[in-house]
Every structure is written in C-alpha cells, then in structure tokens.
Amino acid sequence: MKIKKGDLVQVITGKDRGKQGKVIMAIPTENRVLVEGVNRVKKHTKAGQTARGSQTGGIVTTEAPVHVSNVQLVVEKDGKKVVTRVGFRFDDEGNKIRVAKRTGEDI
C-alpha cells in the first residue's frame, strides 16, 4: 500500500470529497485507511458501568475506514499543498523510497 500511517491525505470521492486529514491507521489486508475527521459514523454502544460506577454507553461518533483508492497523498511544494500520486525508486544501497509523482520529491 502506498499510503502509510501519519500521511496527510485528501479524499477524492464520496460524501467527504475534498476533506483533508491525517491517516490514523492503515489496514493493508483490507486496502483501507482510517483518516482523522473523515467518514464519521454514529455508533450505538450498550449501556454499562465502569469500576467507579459511572454510566457508559449511548451514541458515540467515530471514524470508519475508507478504501485507499478514495484518498490521495498531499505534499507541500513552495508553501502550497499539492495532491499527488505515489511512486517508488531505489537508492544506491537498494532501499525503496517513496516519491511524489507530481513534484518529483522524496516523501
């Protein structure tokens, strides 16, 4: 997967199109990423009690995973944020390095 945890991405399709956020978690087995502030869903949690006796449960708003094909990496070029595809190259020691296709810079 070309998107990793901590990357800044922009949603390119769906109800949250145009929103930008940081990748909280990458799930390569399912080709999905969890993006901060994107694809927010309401979950109904069962009421219960904690060890101190306080009530838990109710309606909780959390982020749900988004398919990795629906997001694009955002890099900064001359103070502007640019949406780009990701490519790879190998350095002299044979290490794989991610490269922004639009700017040509290493990520």
UniProtKB/TrEMBL annotation:
Gene Ontology CC terms: ribonucleoprotein complex; ribosome
Example GO biological process: translation
Keywords, in A-Z order: Ribonucleoprotein, Ribosomal protein, RNA-binding, rRNA-binding
InterPro entries referenced in this protein's UniProt entry, alphabetically: KOW (IPR005824), Rib_uL2_dom2 (IPR014722), Ribosomal_uL24 (IPR003256), Ribosomal_uL24_C (IPR057264), Ribosomal_uL24_CS (IPR005825), Ribosomal_uL24_KOW (IPR041988), Translation_prot_SH3-like_sf (IPR008991)
Ranges for domain KOW: 2-29
Gene3D superfamilies associated with the record: 2.30.30.30
Superkingdom in the source lineage: Bacteria
SMART domains registered for this protein in UniProt: KOW
GO molecular function: rRNA binding; structural constituent of ribosome
CDD domains cross-referenced by the UniProt entry: KOW_RPL26
Family: Belongs to the universal ribosomal protein uL24 family.
Assembly, per entry: Part of the 50S ribosomal subunit.
Function in brief: One of two assembly initiator proteins, it binds directly to the 5'-end of the 23S rRNA, where it nucleates assembly of the 50S subunit. One of the proteins that surrounds the polypeptide exit tunnel on the outside of the subunit.
NCBIfam families documented for this protein: rplX_bact
Protein name: Large ribosomal subunit protein uL24
Origin species: Streptomyces beijiangensis
